[in-house]
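Q: Convert this sequence to structure tokens.
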Amino acid sequence: MILLCYGTRPEYIKMLPVMEEFDEARIEYKVLFTGQHTDLLPARARANIDHELHIKEGHNRLDSIVGSIMEQPQIWLDRGLTHVMVQGDTTSAMAVGLAAFHRKIPVIHLEAGLRTYDNENPYPEEFNRQVISRLASVHLCPTNHDAKNLRHERVEGDVYVIGNTVLDNLRKKDLKPSYNNTVIITMHRRENHEEIPDWFIQLDRVAKAFGELDFIYYAHPNPNIQVHLDKLETVNVQKALPYDEFVEQLAKCRFLITDSGGLQEESSFLRKKSIVCRKKTERVAGIGTFSILCPTSNDLYRCVNEIQDDFVPPSDYECPYGDGYTARNIVTVLRTFEK
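A:
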């Protein structure tokens, strides 16, 4: 029996295809909700939870996540637990992986091998995923580049290239890309928090300069973001949408401006270009064709100017992050354990 773990909306979105495929393949599993995001998860994400952890409030949020998870041993009392699967690079994923490692339960890392090799970018995700790689027994990589990183690092365990599960959701929805005048904006990453005022000022200037485009910012509920929303006078500020509604808008937009990792994958699958507002990205497979790196707010105008008239990716370039059948590939990998 495999324990599937998620605690944030992105983790749930990427774990959902795994649960659906496991149900179809009759692979036994239970679900652990680590409690990192309680306000962004849809109701259905909480419907079939077998274990739920509680994050205590403290002076440092990251300390609270790690400490709370390590101090709740009840999740390990299930008999027949053979593996633990964690997704991505959140602090809760790292803490659950470490707790499993302490109990000698093999860890399966979904979305393994992504790297910037800079612990400050992204922070704390780069550190988290490197820790998980050092303790995991099975590494499920989205791309060959990610697998190459792990082999170079000489990690222990088995390395597989399977794609990214987030694309399975889009394949099932069968969304047809189109291009309107909307530019979707998301920005929330911790390493950008101190520079959010500068980003918002530049976003508003760009929105004024390119008046023929409709810039829509879907605001993250983090207080570090909310306190600066008044700087967006021209940008249309809206509440974050439920996932299904958001991807429908993504399929229709002209391009997007984001600091999200998952959106770099989803947008490329939907034939959209993205301006990535980060100093470094671990999704390097799409750089130059599906994405443009925008390391500082002062680079934003240049990037928008570059992409506005060249917003359709070349037709001969396929999405580098998979074909939407990743969960099926995972089941194939797990079946090899049974032989």
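The mean pLDDT is 92.
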